[in-house]
Amino acid sequence: MKLPILFNPASGTSPKDPDALLRPLPRDLRDQVEPIPFGPPWDFEPAIAQALAADGPLLVWGGDGTIHHAAKALIDRGCPVPLGAIPGGSGNGLVRGLRTPLEPPGALRRLLEGRELRMDLPRLDGEPFMNVCGTGFEAAVAHHFDALPGRGFATYAQSCLRLWRTWQNADLAWDAETVPMPPPASRSGRLRAAFQGPQPALPGSAWSLCFANLPTYGSGLWIAPGADPTDGCLQWATLARPSFLDLLTKMPALFRETGSTSLRQEGRLRHATLSLPHPLPWHLDGEPVAERDRAELTVEQRVFRMQVTGACPWT
Prior knowledge:
Layout: E1 3-7, H1 18-22, H2 27-30, E2 33-37, H3 45-53, E3 58-62, H4 64-76, E4 83-87, H5 93-97, H6 104-112, E5 115-124, E6 127-128, E7 132-136, H7 137-147, H8 153-164, E8 170-171, E9 173-179, H9 187-196, E10 205-206, E11 208-212, E12 234-239, H10 244-249, E13 264-284, E14 287-308
Parallel strand pairs: 1-2, 1-3, 3-4, 4-14
Antiparallel strand pairs: 5-6, 5-14, 7-11, 7-13, 8-10, 9-13, 11-12, 12-13, 13-14
Helix pairs in contact: 7-8
């Protein structure tokens, strides 16, 4: 029995060629796997049964949306096998956060040679997500992007530009258990933290707000560099609305893991109930979900089985 590699031909900006994915692999690894085209209505049951019989991970080659659906299917079945995510979308936020190679053949090889990580499982009103959920500007972009016919960074940038001009801050009311941020590991990080002063309190308003299990959005934006998917906490992070000058001078720092900018604030919490003045859009792993004016965020510690590469910094 071979390990299934589910791939969504519709995700990403270029066609997926299973032969090109497998060709660079050594023969012993190539013989272990079987690419299977997949898509809506997202019936994962046969592939999960095949992965279980093959004693290995369920490998999914696709974007954050496809991987989100696969994770939900595994959670519904009690996580019988790990999930291995091969980058194949336009953003690839989850795999970036796990430090999986972005070149699909390299990612597949490293995952087959990799290990299992027990990750935290966060939920928004009971619905699971793996990477980030959020509201405000970022969720409005997710809803707008989902309604457009195209994919890719250019289409996403078009949505961002349109909403950047008009989206306003929303007031936030919290009932939450917060946790201090851990001290930075590097000397330069400790110096920067000392220069920045006390850790920020939960924000009273936000233009864009996310709750992160892993540190990156799609396209390489480090929204929550301190996020740790094994600590039983969520990293909250806000982005202030950037001016045109900020787009040129402050935004580039968000695309570096060690970048520091006044546009971003972040902290940690174990759980939270968030109240908003009126219903706002939300997203789960970039997938648009229903508007709401009240949200409950919870975390189950280290219950999700994820296949990762040796480059993943968590154990």
